[in-house]
Amino acid sequence: MTEQEGLTVKKSENFPEFYTQLIQKADLADYSKVKGCMVIKPNAYHIWEQIQDYFNSRLKKLEVKNAYFPLFIPESFFQKEAEHAQGFSPEVAWIANTEEGERLAIRPTSETVMYDSYSKWIRSHNDLPFKMNQWCNIIRWESLATKPFIRTREFLWQEGHCVYETEKETDKETLTYLEEYQKLCQDLLALPTLTGKKSDKEKFAGAKYTLSIESIMPDGKALQMGTSHNLGQGFARSFNISYLDRKEKKQIPWQNSWGISTRLIGALAMLHSDDKGLILPPKVAFSQLVIVPILFKDTQAKVLKKCKDLEKKLKKHNPILDDRNYSPGWKFNEWELKGVPIRLEIGPKDLEKSQVVLVRRDNNNKTPVKFSNLTKEIDKTLEDIQISLFKKAEIEMKEKIHKTNAFEDFRHIIKGKKVALAPWCGTIKCEEKIKDKTIGAKSLNIPFNQPPKIGKCFHCSKKAKHLTYFGKSY
Questions:
Q1: How far is CA 445 from CA 195, 217, 222, 356, in A?
Q2: At what angle are helices 15-25 and 263-271 packed, to 10 degrees?
Q3: Residue pair 340/285 in contact by the 8 Å Cβ criterion
Q4: C-alpha pair distances (Å), 243 with each of 121, 125, 127, 165
């Protein structure tokens, strides 16, 4: 691989350019002719498929069923829930000329179109809880600068929408789905998260409250990676969703909605990468190992035969045997760029010793491993890489969080590209002033675990309600 084919900037020196190069050169995505849209390439789509498989298995245990609803949503549906419509109006793409006689929105989210159907399907308490999910594409006509996976006009996501008899049950399950997202990020993607409740200013339009998972990227900006909303009874009233209770009385149910998107792939690329390229967590890697033969004319046939034998033996890891006519160094660089977790090097001297050289992508450690012990060692190494990636990312995230009680200190934290944890009064007016004075810093979320005594708001000096994470975000 030539120098220009690899990354030409350092992650620590020019992170925006580093990320742009990484996404393209590691074969995750490419730009489209349509502004703000991208092509998701197979290596990245494989990650999305692993997310789908993992989460679908969790949904089955939670008795959530998958379905699919239309991409096009009548404008009148949005008008039924005023706060929701107002919150999304700047981002909605419209089809103006329709046979229906009204504009059709191209799905920015599916509450309205799904709840119109729910109003027909839910009749009795026997129909509850009603739990449905869909995997689909979303269109939000962003006017802000776009970035592959992080902010695009079209992206993929899942959105779950449930209906319950009681507020208590809704509260419980709204938290359950957030916890599922946290587990997915940790166990599958090796991504650490901050869990908590969104401020009133930052909550989902039309929701009673919003819970979120956030993480902190290498440039100090936070990234919202999943949300779970308690929608209260507002949408049910707006869309005439009701049921007959056990006493045959008409009741209004409670609802929640929750979602994650392909933004998770962007978070993974930002956090699990270095100046050589991507570092894929083994559980989502398109291939867990690459076999690179070290070839010389007189031993080429023997080495290749052994490599092919290993390729068959290690089939469960979806191995790549790279026997192309390039130098070993060129191949090493390419697979390091693409993030394959393990590289196995085999040359004539290794054959003589009945071994391979196992190289870890995450820390570049090289270990000679006997053929007889290879399967066990690969399994052990993959497990260790998965754990190590999470621990490293968690340490780096915690190092970026600074506690403060004073606004001037808060300013320095934000200027230093860090995240602040500060006592805050919780009012929208105070948050707006904080954002204005810091050119963009906002509340990320409010941690669930709070100390018994909090003190005064770091900004307005009124009584603080809770410690809150603040920072700039994508």
A1: 7, 16, 10, 48
A2: 110
A3: yes
A4: 10, 6, 8, 9
Q: 91-113: b or e for each residue (b if 16 or more CB lie within 10 Å)?
A: bbeeeeeeeeeebbbbbbbbbbb
Radius of gyration of the chain (CA): 25
Instruction: Answer whether 227's CB lies under 8 Å from 259's CB.
Output: yes
The residues facing 332 across adjacent strands are none
3-state secondary structure the chain: CCHHHCCCCCCCCCHHHHHHHHHHHCCCEEECCCCCCEEECHHHHHHHHHHHHHHHHHHHHCCCEECCCCCEEEHHHHHCCHHHHHHHHHHCEEECCCCCCCCEEECCCCHHHHHHHHHHHCCEHHHCCEEEEEEEEEECCCCCCCECCCECCEEEEEEEEEEECCHHHHHHHHHHHHHHHHHHHHHHCCCCCEEEECCCCCCCCCCCEEEEEEEECCCCCEEEEEEEEEEECHHHHHCCCCEECCCCCEECCEEEEEEEECHHHHHHHHHCEECCEECCCHHHCCCCEEEEECCCCCCHHHHHHHHHHHHHHCHHHCCEECCCCCCHHHHHHHHHHHCCCEEEEECHHHHHCCEEEEEECCCCCEEEEEHHHHHHHHHHHHHHHHHHHHHHHHHHHHHCEEECCCHHHHHHHHHCCCEEEEEECCCHHHHHHHHHHCCCCEEEEEECCCCCCCCECCCCCCECCEEEEEECEC
Measured CA to CA, the distance from residue 17 to residue 21 in angstroms comes to 6
C-alpha–C-alpha distance, residues 252 and 237, integer Å: 7
Cβ contacts of 328 within 8 Å, gap of 6 or more: 292, 294, 345
Question: What is the set of domains in the chain, with CATH numbers?
Answer: 3-273 (3.30.930.10), 287-380 (3.40.50.800), 401-471 (3.30.110.30)
The answer to pTM > 0.90 is yes
Tokens at 115, concatenated:
């709840």
pLDDT tens, residue by residue, 258-271: 999 999 999 999 99
For residue 249 the two structure tokens come to 């009385």
Q: How many residues are recorded in the chain?
A: 474
What pLDDT does residue 5 have?
Answer: 84
What is the rounded average pLDDT for all residues in the chain?
96
- Share above pLDDT 70 across residues of the chain, in percent, rounded to a whole number: 97
454 in Cβ contact with 466 (< 8 Å) = yes
> What digits encode the pLDDT tens for the residues 125-181?
999 999 999 999 999 987 678 899 999 999 999 999 999 999 999 999 999 999 999
Q: How many CA atoms lie within 13 A of 254 on its CB side?
A: 16
